[in-house]
Design a protein that fits this description.
By secondary structure, the protein is an alpha+beta fold. Helix content is 38%, strand content 22%.
């Protein structure tokens, strides 16, 4: 039976209404994006540098797929030798932007590898706790970015992570830390552990201490 013009118009109207509703839903979603309300979305990936515990510092990423095709990404700069999470952020980006970011990291000489999300969370929480025991607080945004892990349990990871280097904390001054910052950090370590309880490196232009 042929479809009448009236029926055709009715079907077209329904399709238009569905598209309009989808656009509105996407706009509402976009205005409410946060790590917490993205926590139940499909996991895209979770990655870390393959030699993180050799370098001592590196990135930890967790990403989830948004309904519009973009990615919700929480990123952490973690110092597994001493200071825990030094920086953290949450961002929404396209898949292409995310891949370009990873390629830039690989281009700088670091290899990335996939990791189970529960192990990534365990790695981060362990680094934060290690730093706390030494007297250091992690970056202010750490607790805001972490909820993207959702109900993933770190306790489900069987991997054991050992922090510090050769059995002791090892502080390396980063590019955003002044000599004064470094002096404060080493003073905190000295007060906690004594002169022989840690290693540190102020920088190539300064005196190295062990």
């Amino acid at each position: 039976m042929a479809i009448s013009d009236k029926q055709k118009q009715k079907k077209l109207l329904k399709k238009k209404q569905k598209r309009t509703a989808a656009v509105k839903a996407t706009k509402v979603w976009a205005t409410n994006i946060s790590p917490a309300n993205c926590a139940n979305l499909p996991l895209n990936d979770c990655i870390v540098p393959s030699n993180l515990f050799e370098l001592g510092i590196g990135e930890v990423f967790i990403s989830r797929q948004l309904p519009d095709g973009n990615l919700a990404v929480s990123a952490f700069i973690v110092d597994v030798f001493c200071l825990g999470v030094k920086n953290a952020l949450f961002s929404v980006m396209s898949g292409e932007e995310y891949e370009n970011m990873k390629e830039a990291i690989v281009g700088s000489g670091r290899e990335l590898e996939s990791i189970q999300a529960n192990c990534a969370k365990k790695l981060l929480e362990g680094a934060v706790e290690y730093a706390k025991e030494l007297g250091f607080s992690s970056h202010d945004y750490y607790k805001k970015a972490l909820p993207l892990f959702g109900n993933i349990a770190a306790s489900d990871c069987a991997v054991h992570y050992t922090y510090g280097k050769e059995g002791k904390p090892f502080y390396m001054r980063g590019p955003n830390e002044s000599i004064r910052d470094a002096e404060k950090i080493t003073a905190t370590l000295r007060k906690k552990l004594g002169d022989e309880g840690f290693h540190y490196l102020i920088g190539l232009d300064d005196t190295a201490f062990e």
